[in-house]
């Protein structure tokens, strides 16, 4: 009974605030403190030539614990503006890179 009430309250809170936008990409840089650069690639069909074209965009994301490393595939979610460029934060690491080394 208590679990059902907690689940209902959580669902109402999400419905009230809305669902955050999620993106999945590859970490390209971890040289800043608590900030990672994530490259998100998407495939779109060209309007005239009907070919699939890949578009890439960089996003600056907040990584509080420094758990992401270069080459890792990560999931980022939108958040309030944290700095001039950061509007995303790291949700979780989807896949670890075998080449990634932890930063010292």
In brief:
The protein has about 100 residues and is an alpha+beta fold. The protein has one helix and five strands.
CATH uppermost class: Mainly Beta
User: Largest beta sheet: what is the strand line-up?
Assistant: 1-2-3-5-4
Number of helical regions = 1
Structural class: alpha+beta
**Which sheet architecture does the biggest sheet show?**
5 strands, mixed, barrel
- Residues in helices, as a percent range: 10-25%
Strand content: over 45%
Spell out the helices and strands N to C.
Answer: HEEEEE
Distance between the termini: 48 Å
Poorly predicted runs of 5 or more residues: none
Quaternary = single chain
The CATH topology is OB fold (Dihydrolipoamide Acetyltransferase, E2P)
C-alpha Rg, in Å? Answer: 17 Å
CATH architecture: Beta Barrel
CATH superfamily grouping: Nucleic acid-binding proteins
Number of domains: 1
Strand element count: 5
How confident overall, as mean pLDDT? 88
Note the overall shape: extended
